[in-house]
Design brief:
alpha/beta; about 220 residues; globular; Rossmann fold; 8 helices; single chain
């Protein structure tokens, strides 16, 4: 088990090829995300932005988009800047759990294959922070690795705890190990975070996109 930032720093050169060719459903999900953002989106928060594969597609539809990107790994952010030298981006190297976000600041937020490393309570707290950072009609689009049933989820979380215990890794330190949740649990966590309406809009293999809206549909 490696520290999260070290894991991705060691794989920065192969990351894009791996995501596009080895992770079932990711190529289709990258292509779909721009269509889930409203035409009025001008200010985007990208959590765990990596090298910006999702931004490559988003910028095609929103070339003048202003982006705040947060990632733990400096090498990923360096490649992101290299990939989009002419875009207006505020890039922050750090944990999105710790970064202060202004209230009512962003039209939209996205995350891509990053949330499946964390415990439920940590994610609910993060979703509350994302919810507060979005404008009144904002939306959050999450693409992530989600499992079919509770038994699978329980297995991964139990293994993570066992390995951490065996290696004496403190609970709050970020180490790379997949702890995917079920789609049902992810939707429940987003609703606990404040989102009134959450929809599952894509599932290919274990790659799933959820769209969470700050406002429910009018009755």
């Amino acid at each position: 088990m490696e520290r999260m930032e070290d894991f991705f720093a060691a794989r920065v050169d192969e990351y894009e090829g791996h995501m596009l060719s080895a992770v079932e459903g990711c190529e289709q999900a990258y292509g779909m995300i721009p269509s889930l953002l409203p035409v009025s989106c001008g200010n985007l928060l990208d959590l765990g932005c990596g090298t910006g594969l999702e931004l490559k597609e988003i910028f095609k539809r929103f070339p003048d988009l202003i982006v705040t990107g947060i990632d733990l790994t400096r090498e990923m952010l360096d490649k992101l800047k290299h990939n989009f030298p002419d875009k207006e981006m505020n890039l922050i190297c750090g944990s999105y759990f710790d970064v202060d976000l202004k209230r009512n600041e962003y039209d939209c937020a996205v995350s891509f294959q990053t949330m499946h490393h964390f415990e439920h309570e940590a994610k609910i707290g993060l979703y509350q922070k994302i919810f507060a950072a979005l404008k009144s009609d904002g939306r959050y689009i999450e693409c992530d690795y989600m499992v079919e049933n509770q038994e699978e989820e329980d297995f991964y979380f139990a293994e993570n705890r066992r390995i951490r215990r065996d290696l004496n890794i403190p609970e709050k330190e970020f180490y790379h190990y997949d702890t995917p949740c079920t789609v049902t649990n992810q939707i429940a966590m987003l609703k606990k975070g404040g989102f009134e309406r959450v929809e599952s809009v894509l599932r290919i293999g274990n790659t799933t996109i959820l769209a969470a809206y700050k406002q429910a549909l009018p009755e």
